[in-house]
Amino acid sequence: MHIVNYYQESFGYQENYIPYYQSINGCDVIIVTSDYYFPFPDYDETMQDHLGDRHIGAGVYSDKGVKVVRKKSYFSHVPFAGLIYFNPIPEIDNFRPDIIHVHGATNTWFLKVVFYKSKYKYKIFVDNHQDFMVESYNIKLLYNCFYYIWRLIYHNFGVFDKVCKFLPITRSSQDWLKLRLEINSKDSIIVPLGVDADMMFYDRKYDHEFRSQYNADNKIVIVNAGKQYKEKNILSIIEVAIRARALGADVLLVLVGNSHGMYKSYIDDKLLDLGEDNYVRLPLQDRAALHKIYCASDVGIWPGIPSITIQEAMACGVALIVPNNEIVGHLVDYNGFYISSDNLDEVSKYIFELSSNKNLLEDVKARSQQIAEKYSWKNIVYDLNNVYDQC
């Protein structure tokens, strides 16, 4: 049983793919969640067209053959997404799981799952996506108090002893568990985010079709996909493209995603400096369309809060430019370059070098594909099931 605050069908998230691959491996799997989609920033303007109304309604649904039970929830409109509450106990009674995989370490319904364990003796595993980069954009004092309360709950009410293992997705989220909740590294195992290698791979036909559509046969195509807001640092990507073009690179910047309000205006204004023949703006795309875009892309830049789609781009042969941190820095290994607010000139020169050296470009693109193979969801789920069994 997977229990998660919010669930978006057909996304490339961890909570989509782990249950799916567990089900095709023969496990009986169920997802229990709220009757709302996640409150993405400026939802009505950025996600409404793609997902529809945020409120889906309680009931039984299916996603790629996996049963999804949406529960009537409370506190869905408070400013803090983690405070949503629903009652998973009836589903535990009906399903009687051997394993409960909890998505998130500070959920309001979590204590019910912990103390109900005495009835069915299931194993509890808790994953964690939180890290210091994401936390830095929250209201510090309020969140510090929130995490302090949870630290007390874990270590003074027998909660910690009921959890088999914590499953952070990166070294940074593992460090976050240690600092905020005093959960030591020996009590956690990193389970990284992955890529659907059966869907995301290089296809020469898609490459040719996209480049022909946008007259980009001889251009170096730079891509960024995901939600667009200040913490994503989209303006830095545009600045890099402008500087690379000034050096002589024939660039096409492809921005995929939705923005809103003042930040959309900032992006629009910045793109004027790049020139309308040198960029393409596309709204949020489904993953099949994103596959085609990645096949035609040479370099992907994600300078701010990372996106779950980075490994998907790599699997299609996209070289990578990301920060050198414990969240995504490990993904760069002779297949790209590190970016920071202080080195945009160096990043621009790197892109110019790639545009001038086809052999180098092909080498780094192929290297990205090799690295992405290590992060296939099939392999990750195989390793995760071993973690379940060994606890």
The fourth-level CATH homologous superfamily of the largest domain is Glycogen Phosphorylase B
Question: What is the percent of helical residues?
Answer: 40-55%
CATH topology of the largest domain: Rossmann fold
Q: What is the count of β-strands?
A: 13
What does this protein structure show overall?
- With 391 residues, the chain is of the alpha/beta class.
- It folds into 2 domains: 2-194 and 376-390, Glycogen Phosphorylase B (Rossmann fold); 204-373, Rossmann fold (3-Layer(aba) Sandwich), CATH 3.40.50.2000.
- The protein is built from 17 helices and 13 strands.
- It has helices spanning 14-24, 43-46, 48-51, 89-95, 110-115, 117-120, 132-135, 140-156, 171-181, 204-213, 234-247, 261-274, 287-295, 310-315, 344-356, 358-373, 377-390; strands spanning 2-4, 30-34, 59-63, 66-71, 99-103, 123-128, 165-168, 220-225, 251-256, 279-282, 299-301, 319-322, 336-338.
- The strands form 2 sheets. Strands 3-4-2-1-5-6-7 form a 7-stranded mixed beta sheet. Strands 10-9-8-11-12-13 form a 6-stranded parallel beta sheet, with helices on both faces.
- A hairpin with a 2-residue loop joins strand 3 (59-63) and strand 4 (66-71).
- Helix 10 crosses helix 13 (287-295), helix 11 crosses helix 15 and helix 15 (344-356) crosses helix 16.
- It is globular.
